[in-house]
Amino acid sequence: MPSATQSAAIMLTAGIGIPILAALNAALGQRLGSPIAAGVILFLVALLTTSAVFFFSSGSVKGATSAPPHLFLAGCLVAFYVLTITWVAPTFGVGNAVFFVLIGQLISAAVIDHFGLFGAQPSPLTLWRFAGIAVMGFGVFLTQIAGRG
After folding, report:
1. What are the E-state strand segments in 17-62?
2. Does 88 have pLDDT greater than 90?
3. Which of 21, 23, 113, 144 pairs as cysteine with 123 (C-beta 3.0–4.6 A)?
4. Tell me: the pLDDT tens digits for 9-27?
């Protein structure tokens, strides 16, 4: 398992990649004239990439058939994200699209943590946590209005 510092660095890198993914796939969708086609290509590349990583790891899918069906909803959610950001970002702007994604992430993460949903370690939504999330949300909002000059 990675240390807390390593985990933070990994997730920071993933966070950096999300707007890049949005911009690249939105541009591909425009070039192809189809956000859906861009999504299909993205997922084919992602499948090849994860398959290669899986092949060289010691992973197993043995337990997949006994997993509760709701756990597979994650695949639908990532498809929804990729297709919507690919469709919306070219006209709404990558920054605006990611702004609303970030606000949604803050809200859903707080709810998941508060109730310990999906096996997450419960972390109650205290007044201080709520204030911190509100400050983060306001900070994201400021980055958007500041960019409008």
Report:
1. none
2. yes
3. 113
4. 999 999 999 999 999 999 9
CB atoms within 10 A of CB 106: 16
**CA angle, residues 74, 110, 98, in degrees to nearest 5:** 65
Please report which confidence band the pLDDT of residue 48 belongs to, taking 50, 70 and 90 as the band edges: very high
CB 39 within 8 A of CB 86: yes
Residue holding tokens 């609303």?
100
pLDDT in tens, 118-143: 999 999 999 999 998 899 888 878 87
Residue located via tokens 């919306």: 88
CA-CA-CA-CA dihedral for 108, 110, 111, 115, to nearest 10: 140
Largest CA distance in the chain: 54
| For the chain, percent of residues with pLDDT exceeding 90 | 72
Q: Are the beta carbons of 101 and 21 closer than 8 angstroms? A: no
In 3D, which of 84, 130, 139 has the Cα closest to residue 107? 130
